[in-house]
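Supplementary Methods, section 5.1.

A reviewer requested that the exact input to the structure prediction be made available. We therefore reproduce it here, unchanged from the version used in the analyses.
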Amino acid sequence: MSKRYEVGIVGGGIIGQSIAYQLAKEGVSVLVLESQKSGAGATSAAAGMLGANSELENKDAFFQFAKESQRQYHILGDELSELSQINIQLVDKGMYKVAFTDEEAANLKKAVEQHEELEWHTNETVLNNEPFLASTIKGALHIPEDGHVSPVHVCQAFTKSASLLGAKFIENAPVHSIKKKQANEYVLSTPQEDYTCNQVVIANGVWSGFFFKQLGLPNGMRPVKGECLAVESNEIHLEKTIFYDHCYIVPKGDGRFLIGATMVEDDWNTTPSLGGIQSLIGKITPLMPSISSAKLVNTWAGLRPQSDDGKPYIGQHPEDENIFFATGHYRNGILLAPKTGMMIRDLILKRKLDEKYVRIFSITRNLSQSVR
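The structure derived from this sequence is encoded token-by-token as follows.
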């Protein structure tokens, strides 16, 4: 007879791993089933940006959640390093969100009025700090807290730390069905074996749409393909992440620069296209002309999971308190992973949660809005 686990997590990307780590810290027996290699999907394709201010413009509950998650990385970095001896490569040198026109500059300056930690830097100040940027920029919004991590190292640290705390990770084990046997007994079926759990968390990104349907929910989930490239140069130097028009340059500190990302909706193909890569080069070269001399190292693509309204689903099945969803994080899976893990942990352990987060990430939020 197969071993019973308290919680079974479907999906071994950074969201599933974060949840497993948080639960294992509480002594909960956890099983993580991943259809491929852990962290091989959208997580491995991400540049690792922690862009709360650069990605989220409204100062709402979603933004507050993202900021709290961003700050958790400072705590997690130490915790995971101590447990796993793996450095998540947290770089906290900030970001420049650049303006090329007066209109763009005016819009960015408005953010300074709403967020006291942000600053507007003039053309002269920006070029003094980052001399390889184009001299034609008007200036940039300085975002001191928007750094980056290495998604691969974060995943390795989560997996090793959770494993040391008792969590079980099984790779190449796609879950084909979830069947409820009784009130708190669920069978997760894979091609190799069936696994029994008391509670289930769906955290397999864009593929979670399959389980929404299987579990009787109308929630949608669609892929947004993101194409990226990496270049290398010992002649170019950047301190900060550079962001412009939903495109970014992330300096990795070893001569590599990660550049991304396109947004191609409803495309399930994970092979980068020539047109997609060309569009990135077309955006980045005017921003940083010297990058055209860099060596092209790699191109790749990943599928971001996008919900109907662009916000993740983090919560309970409306008709089954033992089934949870943590999916639909779109462009912000790396950023939101720490706080998502903590929220699912607290839901499972029936701890008090911040009601504004429960509402904004509820599985039924779109249904309730349509009724109104």
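The first strand starts at residue 4 and ends at 10. These observations are discussed further in the main text.
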